[in-house]
Structures are given as structure tokens and as C-alpha cells.
Amino acid sequence: MVNMILAAFSGGMGIVIAAAIVSGVGVLIGLFLGIAGKKLEIPVDEKEVAVRAELPGNNCGGCGYAGCDGLAAAIAAGKAPVGGCPVGGVAVASKIAAIMGVDADAGVRLAAYVKCAGNCDKAKDEYVYTGIEDCRMAAMVPDGGAKMCSYGCLGFGSCVSVCDFDAVHVINGVAVVDTDLCKACGKCIAKCPHHLIELAPYEQKTFVGCSSHDKGKAVTTACELGCIGCKKCEKTCPNGAITVTDFCAHIDYEKCTNCGACKEACPRHVIL
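-> C-alpha cells emitted (272 positions)
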């Protein structure tokens, strides 16, 4: 009987000792991890966290950084303006400015514009394209596409496919931007193989609807609206806002007052 009691007691003590050892090891490991965590802890910039919370999270890259995290870090470090997010616009810029303790620079609202008005009714085709319906693929075929104008919009909507805001649509063979929906993220600009899309002030009313650098005869044969480089618009503009380079007119939006003089002077009606 005594031996049985001693055996039971010894067994119970063994369990207690084992449990104590395991608990002690657990405590030691916990202390080690706690100390290591403090030593290796990466400081958190509270401003960066707050700025990131205000950004829309589209990660479009329109700001020039690798997503919203990159922009938040740059703003917090003073390397990017508080209004650096084109998607967030003035509303987000104001909130971030308050976090950073600076004045919000609203800047000028921008929107994308497609520099081609050669739709199916105006531009002529040179042949029938039957390949993959993607602008980048079509641009690789002879003459840069089926149109007689090798500079024009190919109309397969590669720009449409990358727009996160449903702001670009192909209408009658040409991409058209809804400026009210456009956030100036720049994705469509990067996607266009003919480099037809640029950013312009949202309030801009005057545009050149052509990007062709062909000479007059080739332009008039290919499209009813193409710019022939006659320079009448350049000579008419009172502000020096429109210039013709390599047979194509281009508007300096900072100088343009939308007076309409160039539009009236254009014999091809390509200034819209």
C-alpha cells in the first residue's frame, strides 16, 4: 500500500515537474521574442499610415509611384505633393494637406484627350484587318494599321481595356474620353501604340483632332479632317498658343484662352 502511494506521488510529481519545465521554456521564449521584437522593430510613420488611409486604393500608378503605398510614403517624406493623387483630386488633397499640416495646392484638373477625329465616316481604310482586335497588335501590321493614315486611332479599344473608371469608349471607330469620368491616371496614354492621347486641362475647349505628320496630299487622301500643316491657325492665334511642327498643329494649353480664332481659320475643320 505504501509503495502504491509513493508510486502515485512520484508520477504526479513527474507531471508537475514536466509542466513546470514546459511553462518555464514558454516564458523564456516569450521574453526572448518580446525583446527581439523591440530591438528589430521598424518604426511606423504615423503620418504615412494616415495618408495611406485617405488615398483611394486604385493603385493605378498615375501619380508616378508604385501604387498608393509608394505615394503615401513619398508624401509623408516630403518627396511628393499632397495633391499627387490624380484619382482623389481636390477632396483627397485637402484631407492629406490637413494631415501634413500644409496648404492644399488644388492645381489644375486634367483629363485625357485623344488627338484623332478620323472616325469611320472621315478616315479611309487601306485594307481590311482581320487579326487580333487589339491596337498594339494592329499597329504591327503594314502601315501601322488598316487606315490609310498610319497615325490615326486604330479603334480596337486597348485604352478602354485599361481604364478603371469607364471614361474611355470607342465611338464610330475612334476612342473618345468622357472628361467628367476621367481621373487623369495616364493608363490610356501608356497603352496607345500611336501615342495619340495626352492630358489637357479639364476646362480646355479647343483641341486639334489630328496627329498626322504626313504632307498635305497624303493627308487629304486619307482623311477628310486631317491637318495639312498650312499654319493658318498659327498665324491667326493672338497668344502664340498654337504652333505647327512637322506638318501637324499642336496647342500649348497654358497659353490658349479658347478664343476660337484658330478654329475659324482652319480650312480642314480639324480644330474642334
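The first strand starts at residue 110 and ends at 114.
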